[in-house]
Write a structure and sequence with these properties.
Protein name: Pre-rRNA-processing protein TSR2 homolog
Strand content: under 5%
Largest sheet: none
Number of domains: 2
Radius of gyration: 24 Å
Order of helices and strands: HHHHHHHHH
Structural class: mainly alpha
Distance between the termini: 51 Å
Keywords: rRNA processing
Family: Belongs to the TSR2 family.
Pfam families: WGG
Number of helices: 9
Organism: Paramormyrops kingsleyae
Helix content: 55-70%
Shape: globular
Length: 190
């Protein structure tokens, strides 16, 4: 018996799954339950929803796919994608769809294999932005010194007002106040 060749639709669905499973924003949303108790099922459903979107609409443009993905992320995971990855993901999906339509299934399969390999090498994780307890005391002492120095300078300069931002803000760290508010800071690797 000969093994049947995969259909264009099956290859595109597999490619979509690979793209979405390697999209850090979606994986962070799933891993942290932003979509509720059924986050993993919603991510799987997204593959079918996007595949159906492509099947029902002719000649989709990248911006239309971006809007569709942004709506799905917002509605299903309460997540606004503002890390710049949305155009990249939409572009990749459009490219894979065109390649599938042109019958370039081997090339698409090769790209899927590359994405799966990248996925297994590491996944993005969201971590709460918290300062270690020991550093908080040291930084509060440093903040006191920083705020004392401008006061002495103001007296020497005859009352001219100069303000110096706290050292923790100029160093590019997130103030501990954000962690207390319950927000999670997701940073991009450089």
């Amino acid at each position: 018996m000969e093994a049947s060749l995969p259909s264009t639709r099956d290859v595109f669905t597999e490619a979509l799954r690979a793209v979405l499973e390697t999209w850090p924003v979606l994986q962070i949303a799933v891993d942290n339950g932003f979509g509720g108790a059924y986050s993993k099922q919603k991510a799987e459903w997204m593959v079918d929803a996007v595949q159906q979107y492509f099947q029902q609409n002719d000649d989709l443009q990248q911006y239309e796919v971006e809007d569709f993905l942004a709506d799905l992320m917002n509605n299903e995971f309460d997540t606004v994608v503002d890390d710049g990855s949305l155009p990249q993901v939409a572009s990749k999906i459009c490219q894979l769809f065109k390649q599938c339509e042109q019958g370039m299934l081997l090339e698409v399969k090769s790209q899927i294999a590359q994405m799966v390999q990248r996925k297994s090498s590491g996944r993005a994780k969201a971590t709460p932005a918290q300062l270690p307890a020991d550093n908080e005391e040291e930084e509060s002492e440093e903040d006191e010194r920083v705020t004392e120095e401008p006061m002495e300078c103001e007296e020497e300069k005859g009352g001219s007002s100069s303000t110096t931002p706290p050292q923790e803000q100029t160093a590019g760290t997130v103030p501990s106040q954000d962690a207390e508010d319950g927000w999670t800071v997701v940073r991009r690797k450089k």
